Amino acid sequence: MNALVRIYYDKRENVLTVPLSAIVLRRGQEVIYTVQDGLVRERKVRSGIADDQYVEIEGDVEAGMLVVSGPYEVLQEQLRDSLAVQIRPRL
Known about the structure:
globular, single chain, mainly beta, conserved putative lor/sdh protein from methanococcus maripaludis s2 fold, six-stranded antiparallel sheet
């Protein structure tokens, strides 16, 4: 017999979270990329507690910002601050 168990050892409320796939290391600093007025903006963050999908963040971010997530290699190698982008709806 098998069982899947989740043990919650810390729970926080009213925190900002992003998908784990949104965090990138740039020059030794954790960053996320947001989109504002059609341009990518690099924002320094500090990560907090995480589960298997999301991570708590603190830094130059606010609720409601559009956050870029995706394959680490794409974010690390192709995204840069002030890069022009178009937002496409999910299929």
